[in-house]
Each structure stands twice: as structure tokens, then as C-alpha cells.
Predict the structure.
Amino acid sequence: MGTLSKVTRRTFLVGSVAVAGGVAFGFYAYKTPGDNPLLADLGEGEAALTPYVLISPDAITLITPRADKGQGAYSVQALLIAEELDVELDQIRVDPGPPSPVYYNTALATEAVPFRSTDTSNAANAMRGVADAAMKFIGMQITGGSTTVPDSYEKLRIAGAIARETLKKAASKETGTPIADLRTERGHVILPDGTERSYQSLAEAASGLTVVSDVELRDPAQWRLIGKPVQRVDIIAKSTGTQDYGIDLKFDDMLYAAVRRNPRNGGGMAGYDASTAETMRGVHSVIDLGDGIGVIADNTWRAFQAADAVECEWEAAPFPANMDEHWQVLSDSFTEENLNSRNLDAGDVVTALSEGDVLEAEYRAPYLAHSPLEPVNAVVKVTDARVDIWTGTQVPRFVQTNVAAITGHAPEDIHVHVLMMGGSFGHRLEDNYIHHAVRLAMTVKGRPVKLTYKREEDFSHDYLRQISMGRMRGNVSNGQVESYDLSVTMPSVTDSQMGRQGLSLGSTDPIIATGAWDQPYAIPNYRVSAYKAPPLAPLSSWRSVGASTNAFLHEGFLDELIHAAGADPLEERLRLMNDETSRRVLEAVGDMSDWGSDLGPGRGRGVAFALSFGTPVAEVVEVTDTPAGIQIDRVFVAADVGKVVDPVNFDNLVKGGVVFGLGHAMNCEITFTDGMVDQPNFYAFEGMKFYQCPEILVRGLENGSRIRGIGEPPVPPAGPALGNAIFAATGQRLCEMPFSKFVRFA
Amino acid sequence: MRLQVNGIVYDVDVEPDMPLLWVLRDELGITGPKYGCGVAYCGACSVWVDGMLVRSCSYAVSAAEGTSVTTIEGLGTPDALHAVQEAWIEEQVAQCGYCQSGQIMTAAAFLQENSSPSDDEIDEAMSANLCRCGTYPRIRAAIKSAAAKLGGA
């Protein structure tokens, strides 16, 4: 790492507090993330050592700005700080901290460039640097893209080390002992004679010091926590009903609210009659929201009942009313003017596929809902001076800006208190529900209002996973895959999602092609063309985003080609693979599953691979074709994240990602009739049931040169691996999800 | 209306058809039971009424009058864990954790009836509870280890 990089890293971590001006000033001015936000709000005797460590007289608080939706983000962020700070996880509190540009997400921008994640060329790295600086400039404090660990891995350890060394400096000043003679353990600085000084007792002294910025990170051989099985910081609360989620918050004078908006999401309301609702018990008021109504009451259930009792006249949906029309739009979108990117065009597919036997297929993937089990909700209190918002959100900075525009307060007077989320899968990247809560709370200034979406409202107003269609052509020769031409179309997730934030990230949407063009295969003639379809139903990022559909298209048809070539699905993928880390992941599932061994009659195994968010994941699914339907027996997964920081959580996230990917591929779709979602609740959107859950065996590899995330990457290969297994067992090729449209599952 | 929840008696003034869940959560501030689907499908709201497992989102509060209601908070606490909660912690089952109150109440009721269940019996008992994070493999392991703690197989 060059000198300039070192300086940059330091300037970021210590913020403007300890940085001497003058050195590389221009660079610094552009790279500076802003002040340490904790300094603005310090109590008596508190010290904020870096934006990530807050020592109070009674507690050590680690700031974990990446939101926790269940993926264990708080725990893994705390673990990284604690490793260098020399505290144990049972000694600390975690707090997501205030929204602040200082907590911008570096890793998210790193992947938002048109280079393969496996490309480490100078051009790719230079481009990543530019995107990084831009993201910093905007100060996006976003949780997403499986970036929490990549973003935090070095940053939070350095923060812990800075805090530790500064505490030692304080102890040295107070006791006269040279710093070199001090050591730290379990939240204490220990003097040579064994005397212990707690970090808390040093807080006041440390707060007056210049932060030590010249720190070295420990040798991994010395790690106490990283890579070891540790207990998640939230596991006891989540096993005893004592974890407070946003939906659980209660204030003394709080009111409860519900909304009922046009079930044709985005359509208007021509009129409403609330005369019955207004007389119902506990109802405080019925509010016109323009595209629907809100009810404020003294109890959530009463608010739900009253909202249902309002008679509303709804306008048409701002998108095609029925599914046939949605599919027709996609079918019509493979045109030159819609061509959005063609980042991969190797060899000459046009010539190669102009004669001889050409295999063709069309694949489809449906809309999906996010539907975390906790429906969206927010508690909001509006006063003339400030707005307080308590909610689970992945985008606190967007919330701040958007709410300021609604209420007319200055953004710094919008206080977002981020709470634990009961799942998200991308749902909480949207903040529309918060806007509604704010608008309701503005009508009862001074009183907190808790808005809870009824489950049916949550389903009907989700910003969905994209609908997608693929058209593929390819050929084989001499038992090998020779040509693969994949065209994919979907409406732009980025345009839809960022458009609601008033942002435009340019006309090229990389999401349309991710998970397809960037796969590490060396096929002689190989092209991926991404076509941007016109907007249909509103979309948002759904766990693994573009790769969630593209991996199904890509790996499904690749399996067809391999079958046509008469080759082995695993061997041929290995032969084509041109990335060593990915190859070893594939080899690992081959080994784990005893690939090639005879499974017996009526059984089959399928393999799929996907590289998403930089993480290569391979999965083998084994199924049996039983009289009751397809039974999923076992799943083998190998993934490479460079370093498994938290092995228990890694295992849990991989297994959960497999269940999530399989369950949606099996049974789930969102469809529209007359502009309205056909699936009102979970009974019409059944993922995998407990009894259907196979044994899942997981292996984490550490060959990759960079640290990667694991929240999303296990999802994309699951669907195609299942489809390929069903083909192996039955000979039936499934080109459309959900598979339950064509086969029954036992 | 008089309700007994986790051994404490409360007087509440609510409509008889208000679901028990909303009385617990909004009137009494007992928030361990969760609202997930509202139609008795997902199981996040599971509590015991006189020891019987019910879906409180679809159980009229009037039916709970004169009974003894147990929620996750009454099953065990961080300082005095129930064996099922101990197993859930040891296996580190939870991801988002939102469904786990209901999963634990369901598993604990089931293990009282059947202290050494087979895999098929576990499947049958737990398949009406939804976990969107996909923690099913860990739930299965935790039930087995809880059964062992409770003196079964």
C-alpha cells in the first residue's frame, strides 16, 4: 500500500479532529468524510475516540452504523472493533449512532463500476477509487450490497486500535508509566505492577488528548475473536422476547396509526368516505394522504379496523393492469434502442451461431415481494423545533433529507434513531412508510405516532424484485460448450429505486446484467446483452438484486448447453472456469457432494455457480422424485469470502440464503390482476416450509484475496441448482420460476 | 375484563373481539409476541392460554378471560432461561429473531407433549411457523438439544 493510501486511510478514521492540515491538502479536502458526529453530543466525562468508540463513565459503546436486519451486522461490527480495542463482547453496548456522512459505505461504491469483481487491473482499481470518492462525497450511509464486512474489515479494526492506543496514552500521562510498558485486556489498561485502570476511568483524560493515529494492526495469528465462534450480541434478547424492534416501541402518550392506500400501487384516490370509521371506538382522526387514507387511533388493531371501514374510490394503476401485458412489454424489449450494456462480447457469437445446430431457450423470473416478517413501521414525533423518527432503516441519510422536505425542518433537526429490524431483504431500503408516518404525526404535533402497516398493506405496496426475461442461444462442439449468447431484459431497478430518492445514476443500469456478464467462464464465443425494459411495477433491490434472476437465466441455460454437449455439469464448468478462487469453490462442492457417485433411481443432483458481490458461491442440490412430488434431500454449499470473520453467523447466513433462494424458486411470485397484487398475505406467498428444509452442508473457503460479504451471495445459485437437479432427476427442464407452476414439491 | 398474563392480573377495557395479541402489545406493553400476518398463518404471535398453544392474532381476548396466558416473557427470562431458550442461545438460532418468540413457544409446548420427538414429529410440529430468514436447520438442532436437556432422548 502506497504512502498516499496510508494517509487517506488515517484521515478518514480520525476525521478532522487529529489530522494536521497541509499534508496532501487537496486530496484530504476531497476525501474528508466530515467531523466526528459523536463530538457534538458528548456527556460529562465522555470521550469519543474515533466515530466508532464512545467511552462513558459507565459504559463502553461501540458504534455500528451498518443497520442490522438480522444478518448480524451489529455483532460483526462490534467484533471487529473489539478485536483491537481489547474488550469482550459481553462488556460493551452497541449503538448504530446518528446518521452522518462519516459513516459512508466505501465498499458499496467499489462494486458499482463496470469491471468484474475478479478484475484487479489498474484501470478497474482506478475506477473503483473514483466511485469511492463520489460515494463519500454524497455521504451515503447505506446498508446493502453485502458490504458490511468488506467495508468494515479494516476500518473498524483501525478504529479499535486508535482508541486503544489513545487510552494507553491517557494512562501513561496519568501514571507516568511509559506507553511501551502498558498493555490492555478486557477493557482495562494494565500497568507493569498489575494495577488495572478501566477504560471508563480514563475517558476524561483521553478526551483531552490528540488521538493517536499511527497504529499498526495486529497479526491475524494474535486474533482472539475474528474467525472464532462467538456469541452474537443480540442472541439472548432474541431468544427471550426482549429484543426491541421498531414495532415494539412505546411512549406514554403515543398514538397508533394505520394506512390504507390505493391497492394499485402508485395510483391515486378519487375520493373517500370516512363517516363510519370516524365514529369507531378509539379513532382519533382519519387523514387524507392523497393516494389513500391514514387512521390515527389509540390502538393498532382499532386503527386497522377503522382503515378497513373507510370507503375509498381508487384510480387506475400507473402500470399495466395484468400480467400478460407485463410479459408482453418484456418480450418487446429486446431491441437495439433498448440495448443498455454489452460488457461481454468475446469471440464471435454472430458467426458461430449463424449455422449448424443452435440451441435456443426463453427463461422467465417473476416479481417477488420482500416481506420480512416484521411489517414496516415507524414511530414519529414532530414538534416545531425537531422531528424524531424511530424506525428500522437501511438509508438513514435519505430519511433525513426526505423528511426535512416534507416537514420544512432543517435536515440537522431530523433525528433518525435506527432500531433493530425484523428482516428486510432490501425492503428497508425504501422509506415511503416513514413519509406516511411523518405526515400523520404532523397532524398531532408533540405526540409520538406509531404507524404499523397491516400485512396486506405491506404485500400490496412492496417495491418488488424485478420481473425478468432471458433469451438464449448457444451451441456445442466436440463435447464442449462453444458459444453462449444471452440476452436479458428487465425494467431498471436502479431507475425505479433511486428515482424515488430524486437521484439519477445515469442511463446505464449495471443491475440488468449483473450475475450474467461477469461470471468467470472462458467460453470461446460468449456475449451478454442487457436490454432495459420500460418501467412497469415499481421495483427495489431484493436480496442479491440483479443476480437473483440473472443467475437463474445464466446457469439454467449453461446447464442445457452442457447437457447438449454430453458433458458432465460440474466438469464442464470447471473446464470453462478462468478464476482460481471460483474454481476451488466448485471443486469443494464436488468433493462435499461426492459428485459423480450413483444416487439411485428417481434421484438427481444439480450444480450451479454464481459470482455476486465479489463472492463466488457454488451449490449442489440433491432431489428425489417421489410420488408426493419433488423432495429436496440435501444441499452442499461452498463460498469464498476471503476471510470468515464470524463463522457461526457465516454458517447461519449461508443456510438462510439457501432456504430463501430455494423457497422463492419453488413457490413464490407476485402477480397482478386489474393492477392489484394477487397475493394478499403469506398464505399466497409460501416459501419453503420447515418440513421441506433439506440438510444443508456449508464450507467456507478463504482463498480470495479480498474480504467479501455473505448476506446475499448464497441466494442466486440456489434456484438454478434446484432446477438443474430436477432436470437430472426427471428430464424436465424448468425455464420459469416459480417451479411450482410445473412440478409439485413434497 | 380481567386477564392473567405471566402470573400478573390485569384489568383491561377493550372490545371482546379484539385479538389477544393487540391487547398484549398495545394495552399491556407485552411485546414478545409479534404481529406477522394477522391471519393465524405465520405463528409469530404464538402464546399459551391455559398451557394450550394459540395464535393470539386471531384469538379473541374474551376467550382468554379467566384463563392464564403465558407469553415468551413468562416462559423464561435472560436471568432464568427455559431449557428451550437455552438451546436456542447455544445453537445461535436467530437471525432477525422476529419469528423466534413464536417458534420457541411452539417448540416448548410441543416438547411438553413429546419429550423425545422423531424428525418427522418435529417437522409436523414446526411446519406451521414461518421464518423468512431460513433458520430452520438451527431450529431443528435446537429442538433436539432442548429435548435432551428436558430429559428426553
User: Anything to note?
Assistant: Chain A touches chain B through 65 residues (CB under 8 Å). DSSP finds 22 helices and 27 strands in chain A.
